Amino acid sequence: MNEQKIIQLKEHIKAVFFDIDGTYYDQITHRIPDSNIQAVKALQQQGYKVALASARPFSSAIELPVLKDINWDGIVSAGGQEVYDEHYQLIEENNFSQNELNEIFRIAQKHQIPAYVVGDDNFFTMDSSLLEPFKTRFHLTVDKIHPYHGEKALLITLLMPIGFSYEPYFQHMPNVRIQYTGGTNTDLFPKAVTKPSGIHTLMKYWNLADNAYMAFGDSGSDIEMMEDAMLGVCMGNGSEQCKQSADILCGRSDRDGIYNFLKSFDII
């Protein structure tokens, strides 16, 4: 997409959504760049609705300092399973049924596929050499390791080497959507639940058109959001999949990429 097209789109964009990990929250420095906070405040001053859209459930997202300096207009979490308003009150929730959860974890246990679970409790279902790198990357302090025993699960992240294919294990479950991220972690979501589905709920809540938004992301879990947004912006540190699905690239998350992009197009 050329610069002139972006300038033309500006007047139609009413909201801006940010992925968290690798986008709003920098995973290299493990902090939120000051420039991102400035950018979000400037967007709100310009009248844009501004929200987070993350694969992290709300309970996991707030373990990071994402709510510290910003009064978000909404949050889409757990990959679209949870949608929160400006008061962080839940306005929509779409999860797997208990029978579906039981089957997912039965399969994972049978085939020795470790899972990270976030819900009523946060834990890993079995040990693996992939746990520590995963915890470091996502700034997690979870140490519990035990099998699944019927707990509520808002996020199911499977951990296997890059290139591992999950389709043969879950193809008999029509409501399971496999979300590859490009790394060793792969998320499972209900079929109809995506970041865009959660975003559309917020856009309707704000009385705005479904795709009248700009989105910033960096990984495979942001591809649908990149494609659905009026303007999809992939971080310079993003995966190749995400870059290919975006309309345009910006700078890296650790080098003021978001702020510089918004400033360069006079959006803030």
From TrEMBL:
Taxonomic superkingdom: Bacteria
PANTHER family on file: PHOSPHATASE YKRA-RELATED, PHOSPHOSERINE PHOSPHATASE
Gene Ontology molecular function, alphabetical: magnesium ion binding; phosphatase activity
GO cellular component, one term: cytosol
Pfam families membership: Hydrolase_3
Gene3D superfamilies the record matches: 3.30.1240.10, HAD superfamily/HAD-like (3.40.50.1000)
UniProt-recorded name of the protein: Cof-type HAD-IIB family hydrolase
Keywords: Hydrolase
Species: [Eubacterium] hominis
